[in-house]
Amino acid sequence: MSDTSTIPAISGATTVGVPIEKAFRVFTGSFNTWWPREFHIGQAEMAEAILEPREGGRWYERGVDGSECDWGRVLAWDPPHRLVVTWQINGEWRYDPDPQHASEIEVRFTADGPERTKVELEHRLLDRLVGGQAIRDGIGQGGGWTSNLERFAKAAASED
Amino acid sequence: MGLFGDPTRRAIFELLARHPCSVGELAKQLPVSRPAVSQHLRVLKDGGLVVSRSEGTRRVYQVDPDGVSALRAYLDRIWDQALRAFQEAAEAAPADL
To answer: In terms of CA atoms, which chain B residue is nearest residue A145?
Structure first.
């Protein structure tokens, strides 16, 4: 996929001492057991983080009060080799339902022997977050992200 | 608690997005104490979203003008931590999982 982002993609990798099928199962099916609890967007403490195991599935958190906050959608479900999900949490740490504003996370699993799996992650299209064009325009005018935040602050204030 | 999971922290960030403020100025506009404001500012600074500078005898806080990089840096940290947690979980998971 071509990435014309002005913000470089984030990449990460780790090698785990388990077979590829198990690595994929833990990453997806047991997502709730390992995702760091402090990373959530809901106002309530997070009770559960859920990744639905199918293309088009939801990726979301459920708070201790039962409220749900979406994070994104599953774009590609190709066990045990590949998973692509969108990350639609914008710069204000809120879910943005517009798919045009969705960044993407691709996770690739590669067997490195029967009991070892390499897991590589790429979080790309970051300039789509918040509203890519608006960010680029803001940067072009020297306003940077601050001008977007000012607009956001005004919108938030008018909601009160 | 996420960077913006706390309503007071979000309010502080929104005030700073409008204009730079000192701790005292923020505390006046919010129903929380100065030490509480300082604590939230520290979290926002550690998250790379807010920067501070000295102005005479007072310290003024503002949203990092390079906020896109700040967001990227923060996401980078999330993934670093998440992948480490994933590795531990995978290797500790029962054999029949």
So the answer is: B67
